[in-house]
């Protein structure tokens, strides 16, 4: 049963006013002195707690502040929790203390009345002095409770007690006649703050969570305090992976804080654990996914991109703001910070779980294993490109993009920045000498490399941003040279020159650095194999082919000189086979009346003088070229018009190249067209009888293949015959219109024999 207050009225002599004072002695209650004057009764009532008897130890109550030094709870390992009780001092709370501090959780106890103060059993008499004397605690948690709010929630827990029959009992003591039958519930904190006392612990929190030292030092601010449980949740969940961030002493300090957070947020942590283990997340727990050094997966322009989180979100607001870094490359590797925003899907309720992988950005650990393998393979390929790499590029075809066949690029970021001095270039070098190691750095380095890299396209002479994962190793066609249709002794001579020049870098000229180039002139009619020879030389020597036409160069002498110098510089740096196709405008004989042409020829001669690589010029107007060039060419090769035997060999090469089926792009996909190879070979004599040059034969094969694909038929002689008839009709029409053939006109003009 509840203890009933025992009271007795006493009358004392009159005090200053001369009025009698009636005293009600209430036992088993804190000492409360309350003075109240009634205009009607003019009666003063004093309620006090009787002092303990001499020789007895007072019971622990909120007002006993000087009896003993409090001892922290035994389970507090390295930290202290202080429970602060605040009271408004209004109504039945007038006799309470405004603020008191305890070492244990406050509540009301069995037998307490409505006048009782919310309290613990272990009061702290002088909090500031007490905290000053603490030496072994690394952090202090301050929890605040409101006495008035607790009483409001606990009204129904009190049982009424019999009221005294004394009609003069004042209204002010009536709350004493209510009692708790059992202990009240533990009070719910209205707020919680923390003070980090240990500097080493502050440093450990900074390293483990990514918070700044200033934030940790001001952890009592609500924003910082709200984020700490989320960040420590992430550290706790992946403690083994985070171990490298801290030394053993720091880990020991941080473990106590993590354990406290786990106990204080147990329900919240367990709920997050359950969701994340299923690959799900709600907006409430979204911030818990991201911690210091967590690898983050994003998607940029259709490519996955990994980042390392440096600064986790400062708040749990939508959108989350993340500071992360990844590796960038401009000839040197450097870390670049990015501020990333993560929006919760607007169509999804905040409390509805969604797959983590449906977020626009999420930890890489939740991605399918194939994603990490893809990132690592891409990073390893990027590493191969860091010092210059000649590659082929095979991106997926798009409806609005025209792809040239077998495009090749030189990836050389340093040369790009040398050629584009205005391009933004960071002097930062975060990798150092490791860039020279043949092996890519260990760990997540490969995952964090960019998805794109700059490459120079030899088809259009432009620098482009290439998707690294579409870069392929070049499949060199070293047999192409052997399949050239030309006289054997000419082919052997060309092969000997380019092979020896490639293998030797010694100069045979008297003046050092002058005249070391291998310059060849290939002259003959259109479609006789001049350009194909240059392409085959590049394949034979495993070198890039840099093809330039007079249309690329221009006709202004100053611009021509500047352009040629840049071409030959690139040719030297990358070891290219430089092809000046249709170079007739530079080879024509100088005339006294054409000063601009003379200047072009002079510029061309001067620029070639000091080139050191393989340079091939083609011309179909050999009869007009300047005699000064004769000594510049180490070899000049004539390409006569194809005869029947030559055409037969070309047709055979193309038909063998078709194979039994040929894949053709169709609707963004590749579809195969079957080829009747045996039937075509039986008709090669008939095909070779038609006077076509090499380029026309190639175009005929391509057109016939497309016709068969369109008809959904097997490619055979019928398709070639149809195309050849159309081509022949066009040629006869031109000859009839002009009155002579191309070869007759060239011979008449003295351009070629």
From TrEMBL:
Molecular function GO terms recorded: ATP binding; ATP hydrolysis activity
Residue ranges of the region described as Disordered: 1-61
Biased composition (Basic residues): 48-61
AAA+ ATPase domain ranges (all copies): 516-643
Family annotation (Pfam families): AAA, AAA_lid_13, DUF7025
PANTHER family: AAA+ ATPASE DOMAIN-CONTAINING PROTEIN, FAMILY ATPASE, PUTATIVE-RELATED
Protein name per the record: AAA+ ATPase domain-containing protein
Protein source organism: Aspergillus nanangensis
